[in-house]
Amino acid sequence: MTSYAYLIPVFPLLGFIINIFFGKFLKRGAAWVSILSSLASCALGLPAAYEVAKTGQIFSAHAEWLTLGRSTLSFGYLLDPLAATLLFVVTIIGTLIQIYSAGYMQDDPRFSRFFAYVSLFMSAMLTLVIADNYALFFMSWEVMGLCSYLLIGFWFEKNSAANAGLKAFLTTRVGDVGFFLGILTLFTATGNLNFTELESSVHAAGATPALALAALLIFCGTIGKSAQFPLHVWLPDAMEGPTPVSALIHAATMVAAGVYLVARSFALFSAFPSVMQVVVLIGTLTAFMAAFIALSATDIKKVLAYSTISQLGYMVTALGLGSLSAGTFHLMTHAYFKALLFLGAGSVIHGTHSQDIREMGGLLKKMPHTAWTFIIASLAIAGVPPLSGFWSKDEILLAAFDSGNKIVFFLLLVIAFMTAFYMFRLVFLTFFGTLRNHKIHPHESPATMTGPLWILALGAILVGLPGSPFFGHWFSNFIHGPVTQGTHEIHGSGAVHHALNWFVVGCSVAAGLGGILLAAVFYLGKLNPSVWVMRTFKPLYDLSIHKLWFDEIYSVLLVRPFLKLGQWLFIFDQKAVDGLVNAAGTGTVKSSNLQGWIDKHIVDGLVNLVGVVTQLTSATVRRVQTGLVQHYLLITFVSVILLMYFHVKP
Amino acid sequence: MAGFLPDWVLVIKSVLISIAAIAFLGPVTMMYLTLLERKVVGRMQNRIGPNRVGKWGLLQPLADGVKMLTKEDIVPTPADPIAHFLAPILIVVPALLVFAVIPFGRGMTAVDLNVGLLFFIAISSTTTLAIFMASWGSRNKFSLLGGMRSVAQMVSYEVPMVLSVVPVILITGSLSTNDIVLAQGGWGGLKWFIFTPWGLLAFIIFYLCGVAECNRSPFDLPEAESEIVAGFHTEYSGMKFALFYMAEFMNSFTISALAATLFLGGWQGPVLPSWLWFFMKTYVLIFIMIWFRGTLPRFRVDQLMNLAWKFLLPLTLINIFVAGFWYFAPNTIVRVLMSAGVLSLSFWGLQKLNQGYAPEKRVYQFGD
Amino acid sequence: MTHLYDIVKFGIYALMAFSVLAAILAVTVRNLFHAALCFAAVLIGIAGVFLSLHADFLAMVQILIYVGAVMTLVIFAIMLTERFGDNSSPQNNSLTLAAFGLAIVSLIAFSTISVKTRWPIQENAGALHLSVGELAYALLNTYVLPFEVISVLLITTLIGAVIIAKKDRVS
Amino acid sequence: MIPLTHYLIFANFLFVIGIFGALVRRNIIGILIALELILNAVNVNFVAFSQNTSPDPATGQIFAFFVIAIAAAEATVGLAIVLALFRVRKTILTDEIHLLKW
Questions:
Q1: How far is CA A381 from CA A170, A334, A361, A390, in A?
Q2: pLDDT of residue D40
Q3: Which of A128, A426, A449, B77 is the least crowded, having the fewest Cβ atoms under 10 Å away?
Q4: Which of A74, A640, A644, A646 would best serve as a mutation to test chain C binding (most C beta carbons within 10 A)?
């Protein structure tokens, strides 16, 4: 199957073409076209991934594309463990979410357009996963950006949705420009854009500043796409899109592409410890900040959005700590449980037509399937063993512990605690207690929606196992197998390990369970200390509920200076200039009597002289500026001839 | 004789013989095509057609020629005399020139250019100039309208026509008409390009566009008698008028001949001599053109343009892709099925897409 | 065969002279339609010159694109903007004398440069035959980037021309 | 068989005539024709040089193709502008379009 790997993205592309052109005639059949095309990709992609996993080999092929001077650009596919992992994630989750969308989008007037976009997105994402060089990677990266824009603004009648789409597009653009410059820098420095030869070419070029710059610029792409600090502001707003889109693009796959980019460029990053430190810094900061904001969010999708940002920060931190396997592993598990969470949230929204968790409550009885799968996913993200999130989070904590950086380790623990807390705050507020707004009439969603939920729940439970000690850390061996031989020694922590570190496990479980317990105390019992906490730590609470004032800071940084400048100029005009003019006016009036005759005889004479000179000059000079094109043309030609003459003469 | 005359005289002599043959063939073809057309259309309309002059009216074209030559040559007073005079001459020149690259039989190409096909397309595209001269020079509103219509139509249909030829060039890898015929030899005629999915489609499109390029029915808007008298040659009489007709008939001959060359294997064929095969195929195609005229009503302008730009053009583009696939795919039945499937699917799809855009009812802009 | 060469040579020079003559007419004739026709004659003459330089494909492209397409456009524009046979207003502006002087000066200058420079003539000059395939190879390999840029330019032009020339719906 | 210099002089003639036309024509379409003439002169030079001096004879022809493509684009946009201009100002004579004149 591996030799047909290049066909994997082709099927969704066909689905896109059929849906965009003939969607009008297909009506509800559009969903079938998309789902079947995704299934075809699954049918090709999963055996290919299995082949990689079984043999541990790398499959790739490429064809020459362009010759640019001395270097050539090629395009082709690369199936290594990393790509296989992502294939496993993207094809399955993509298909499930499309099945779910068929139910969720049922009554939308632009039904076929939605599936066309999703198919295009699938195609781009799969291309990105199996791309074997930066150029192809960047192209599909941009197509994904386009799809993201289109889908966030899918309900463009709503002003906020259209604006959110624009914001997402423009914010990620900042990162993309950096990424593109990074690719160019890399190409200039090494003359190579292929992933397979990246390591050798980086070694050949040595650790030059240009390469460090390239790494940093490429990381800009990650910051934009994976919504890292300081470009994270677009992701919460992106929740304006349909919920399946949030699940597919803004939780499971596209935003993970940034992490994937770092993993792909790992050879480049790991050559520069300083760059790695930047990566760790950004990752930890993002993770902490987003988790902090999530504590107080009341919109069900916003909580999940901030949680996504936080978890992405986790992955980036792991990669920055030099643990390729931990980051990738968490990417995979996170994709499953976060997609599940979003789909669950979608189901809740579908059933209650509300997004505010303060209005909900007691949905466990009304929507049992949704509730139980949601709780499973929440347990997974909180890191409760033996669910998938536990294993991957443990890997990351272990990597942090091994790196010896106590602060990072501690922060990550705190974040884990916060994650558990806000997730179970969400769960308890939504599914337990009693319904707070009685205008809501919740009902369970149809089978096309609950089916994928259960399948994903199964995934959220099981996908952690390959990385667990029960399977001998099979996953980390697999990832480290053929790709990065030699590189994992650099930081020591990414290396193969076979024993559980009971201290780290203990900390991790304690943080998770502690968070759940605290949430239970806050929101389940009658005590309800949350109001008290809110009042006591008011500054902190304000900070959280206002999202650390990020939108405001940006508007201040960008908008206010211009307004200020304008005002300042206005005041200057009014006070200084006008004042001077007035003073001069008064002075002139007062002294005019005295100087009347001087005016008449000397000044007027001078003025007239100036006037006459001006007139004379302009009368001659204006002949040059006739407004007739051909006069200019004549001058140009004459000048060219003269230039040629002077050039040739000596 | 080789030792008798200097070499250069021999070269010029052979050139002259070719020129003479073509210069003779063109008008004769035209003369008897008029007869053929009148006979065939007559039969289709349950008439007999000309039968008074000579056996089966065989001398009718000669009589017509004499009549044309002796008619008065009228030039309208306000006309642009130079353009009005040059137009009928210039319209015949490209029509005659393209005969040079048509392979009439085995080794019977007057000039085997290595860019023969492009030569054909390039030269026939200059016809628009002559039509412009005729329509602008006559200073007659019907001429101008006819000329505008004609040029718009020719420019529009040239695009899908050229693109429909591209697959043939792609597969044979040559622009020489001779090479294209040679590439279709063997298998008792089964290697003709018309027997491939892309070839069939390209042939249909090429032939349709060719009919449009000749301004023949059902694409005869530029000369629509019921609308604009006779289009760009309204103001011409006598031999000048005959020249326009001559160009038109020669064009329909060359288009048919080229269609036969590109898709029907040219002079390839068993048993019979090569030139006979060639003429048989060509005349079948000419007969179909006349058949069109006998059966089909005229297009409306918007239908005409929609057909060219919204249907034929995308279809030819898809066809080029399919031909590229054909070139690289292994020679199996799968190749045939896949290309046929893609082409018929896109045919169906384009038809579906075009349906929505057909105007529901006619709008008379100046009707009130 | 020398005589034949002489004849062909004479033919080429005649073609050049014809082209120059037609070019002069194209920029001086009062009737713009005639000027366009003269320009078409120049283009065909230049196509002939290309043939003499063994650039067959280019010659055909020249005819196809210039005569078939560009001239059609030009004549369309003339028909849409000119009143028929209106030769009352002069076609030349007041620059004629200056332009003529400039033309003569630059003609002399350029011709001197052309004659005096010692061009590095290749040995097989004048006998290089290029097949269409080689041209295509050069176009799609060595010069693929300019080729792509040109295609972008053309599509931009297409859209731009439509937008400029279409009637304003609003007003 | 015809020396390079003769081609160059031929091209010079065309170029200079083109310049003359571009300078003296009042009608924008006339100017466009003259500009096309200049471009054609350049093309003749390209092909003549590629045939005579270049080690790779394809280069000149390829550039002639590019010039033709650009000339076509130029003609299209130019004529579109002419039409738009005519629609607004009812004239396409350059010396009657002088809004920017002093």
A1: 30, 7, 21, 7
A2: 92
A3: B77
A4: A644
Residue B365: the pLDDT is 64
Could you give the CA distance from residue A119 to residue A103 in angstroms, rounded to a whole number? 16
Q: Write down the pLDDT at residue C20.
A: 92
Q: What is the 3-state secondary structure (H, E, C) of chain B?
A: CCCCCCHHHHHHHHHHHHHHHHHHHHHHHHHHHHHHHHHHHHHHCCCCCCCCCCHHHCCHHHHHHHHHHHCCCCCCCCCCHHHHHHHHHHHHHHHHHHHHHCCCCCCCCCCCCCCHHHHHHHHHHCHHHHHHHHHHHHCCHHHHHHHHHHHHHHHHHHHHHHHHHHHHHHHHCCCCHHHHHHHCCCHHHCCCHHHCHHHHHHHHHHHHHHHHHCCCCCCCHHHCHHHHCCHHHCCCCHHHHHHHHHHHHHHHHHHHHHHHHHHCCCCCCCCCCHHHHHHHHHHHHHHHHHHHHHHCCCCCHHHHHHHHHHHHHHHHHHHHHHHHHHHHCCCCHHHHHHHHHHHHHHHHHHHHHHHCCCCCCCCCCCCC
Tell me chain B's radius of gyration from C-alpha atoms. Answer: 22
Mean pLDDT of the residues in chain B: 82
For residues C26 and A326, give the distance between their C-alpha atoms in angstroms, rounded to a whole number: 76
CA distance linking residue A214 with residue A183, whole number of Å: 7
Residue extents of the structural domains in chain B: 71-350
Query: Which DSSP category does A72 fall into?
Result: E
Per-residue pLDDT band for A247 (boundaries 50, 70, 90) equals confident
Report whether D91 contacts C89 (CB < 8 A).
no
Number of helices (H), then strands (E), in chain C? 7, 0
- Tens digit of pLDDT for each residue in C94-150? 778 888 888 888 888 888 888 888 888 777 766 777 778 888 888 888 888 888 899
ipTM: 0.73
pLDDT 10s digits, A50-87: 888 878 778 888 877 777 667 777 888 888 888 888 88
pLDDT category of residue A490 using cuts at 50, 70 and 90: very low
Cα gap B104→B267, rounded to integer Å: 7
Strand, helix or coil at A228? Answer: coil
The Cα–Cα gap between A302 and A16 comes to: 30
Strand ranges inside A271-376, DSSP E: none
Q: Which carries the bigger pLDDT value, residue A623 or residue D80?
A: D80
Amino acid at position C94, single letter = S
CA–CA distance, C38 with C42 (Å, rounded to integer): 6
* CA A89/CA A97 separation, integer angstroms: 12
Chains near C, with 3+ CB pairs < 8 A?
Answer: A, B, D
Write down the pLDDT at residue A482: 46
Residue C131's CB is within 10 A of a number of other CB atoms, namely 14
Kind and range of the H or E run holding A625: none
**A471 close contact with B: CB closer than 8 A:** no
Q: Which of A324, A326, A320, A325 is nearest to A272 (CA)?
A: A320
3-state secondary structure A53-67: HHHCCCEEEEEEEEE
Query: Is C144 within 8 Å of chain A by CB?
Result: yes
Whether residue A83 contacts residue A130, with contact meaning beta carbons closer than 8 Å, is answered with: yes
Mean local confidence (pLDDT), B211-226: 78
pTM: 0.64
| Nearest residue on chain D to A631, alpha-carbon basis | D23
CA B225/CA B237 separation, integer angstroms: 16
Domains annotated on chain D, with CATH = 4-93 (1.10.287.3510)
Token reading at C143:
């010069």
CB contact under 8 A, C141 and A67: yes
Nearest CA in chain C to A637: C102
DSSP D93: B
Structure tokens at B170: 């792609």
Tokens of residue A379, six digits:
């347990």
